[in-house]
Design a protein that fits this description.
Blueprint lengths: L1 H16 L6 E6 L2 E17 L15 E15 L4 E8 L4 E10 L4 E9 L4 H4 L12 H6 L3 E10 L3 E8 L16 E13 L2 E13 L12 E2 L11 E2 L6 E15 L2 E14 L5 E13 L5 E4 L2 E4 L9 E15 L2 E17 L3 E14 L8 E3 L2 E10 L1
Antiparallel strand pairs: 1-2, 2-3, 2-22, 3-4, 4-5, 5-6, 6-7, 7-8, 8-9, 9-10, 10-13, 11-12, 13-14, 14-15, 15-18, 16-17, 18-19, 19-20, 20-21, 20-22
Length: 392
């Protein structure tokens, strides 16, 4: 059934790709120019499993998963005056996306109230439709924080800026994020000492501090991550549950360099879990990757985040080659969460203005002990991934 649904979705994406418009303007309502955007993604993962069976349904005997990844519908409004708003919903995950109101004091500074992405990950803050790889790096999935409800003030002066945010829980709290669900605050600053046409050097620093709580407000924390495959059922590294957790504090450093059609990007994050009855736990991870636009396009830059433009020649589209190395360490003292390091090679094709095809090959190396006295188990699967995407 899942295969049939995915093939149907892929066919719909292909049929719409040549005719979809960018952003659809609906009407002027109450002085606000209302527009409609969307993003649909269909994914396929094929596993060459080693120790653990990565297939989501281990009972079916298959070595592959096919699934709709996202079905995002977004309404946006500009005006009246310096006001703007957005309301997004993902029908696939049954949750709200950005849902907020913003007021701009001037061209540089604004305040936002509602749900939005928190300021602690360059890759997470980038647009989902322009991800350089099908799965974000382990660093981002493990320690990056996505959307929470709160209030933020941010300023963007072109080559420098920053964000300060205070937040609570997600509007639709139907998942279990690694970084807990309690109240907290976040800070991020960025600086681009080189910022010119097709030339950019970026540095960023972020900090997130929040209560370690589960959806029932119990003091709980757990850090685990999939092996760079969003559909995989297993996490090869896992800290286990800390039932005495107090707070989670994540510090992130980011750097990136763009020269014409080449982009190099890296991030390092450290998360400390303070505990009441046991020693504190610290997790580390980092990634570095490079992307080369074979068709010559470069990247834009706004608010300390890279933007991906349209193909220079719509008839040929934009072709990208990419390679990434990412690693995560969840071992600390008596906690044997494991270590994992992955290589990913990928290709992206942005066809015209609205369609994208991606293929990734992931080579995983992981090791984990059940406890300090247990034998070391190595699990080194390979994964092939494909994605079809329509956006407007």
């Amino acid at each position: 059934m899942k295969i049939r649904h995915t093939l149907l979705a892929t066919a719909v994406l292909a049929s719409l790709a040549g005719t979809a418009n960018a952003e659809i303007t609906i009407d002027m309502i109450g002085g606000s120019e209302v527009s409609f955007e969307g993003l649909v993604q269909a994914d396929a993962n094929w596993y060459d499993s080693d120790v653990k069976n990565l297939n989501a349904d281990a009972a079916d005997g298959a070595d592959a998963d096919f699934q709709m990844r996202r079905a995002e519908l977004i309404l946006k409004g500009k005006g009246p005056g310096m006001w703007s708003w957005v309301l997004g919903y993902d029908a696939r995950s049954d949750k709200f996306l950005d849902a907020n109101v913003q007021y701009k004091f001037n061209a540089e500074t604004s305040v936002t109230v509602g749900q939005y992405k928190q300021p602690n990950s360059l890759e997470e803050l980038s647009s989902t439709k322009n991800n350089d790889f099908i799965s974000k790096a382990m660093t981002t999935n493990l320690q990056g924080m996505s959307r929470r409800f709160g209030a933020k003030v941010e300023t963007d002066h072109g080559n420098w800026g920053g964000t300060a945010s205070y937040f609570g829980n997600e509007l639709t709290n139907n998942e279990s994020p690694s970084l807990g669900t309690g109240d907290g605050f976040g800070l991020r600053g960025f600086f681009a000492p080189i910022k010119g046409d097709g030339q950019l050097l970026h540095f960023g620093l972020s900090y997130i501090d929040l209560e370690a709580r589960d959806s029932s407000d119990n003091p709980t924390a757990r850090l685990r991550v999939r092996p760079d495959a969003d559909l995989a059922s297993q996490r090869l590294i896992d800290s286990g549950t800390f039932s005495d957790a107090d707070r989670l504090k994540t510090t992130g450093f980011e750097a990136a360099y763009v020269s014409g059609p080449v982009k190099i990007q890296a991030e390092h994050m450290t998360t400390k879990v303070s505990r009441d009855l046991n020693p504190d736990f610290t997790a580390d991870s980092w990634y570095v990757y490079g992307v080369y636009n074979l068709t010559g396009e470069t990247w834009g830059y706004k608010g300390g985040v890279f933007t991906t433009g349209l193909p220079d020649d719509p008839s040929k589209g934009m072709w990208q080659l990419a390679v990434r190395y990412d690693t995560a360490d969840l071992n600390d003292g008596a906690v044997t969460g494991g270590k994992e390091s992955n290589w990913t090679v990928g290709v992206n094709w942005y066809a015209r203005s609205n369609f994208k095809l991606s293929a990734n090959y992931v080579m995983v190396e992981s090791e984990k002990r059940a406890n300090l006295a247990a034998p070391l188990i190595k699990d080194n699967p390979n994964i092939f991934e494909m994605r079809a995407q329509l956006f407007w």
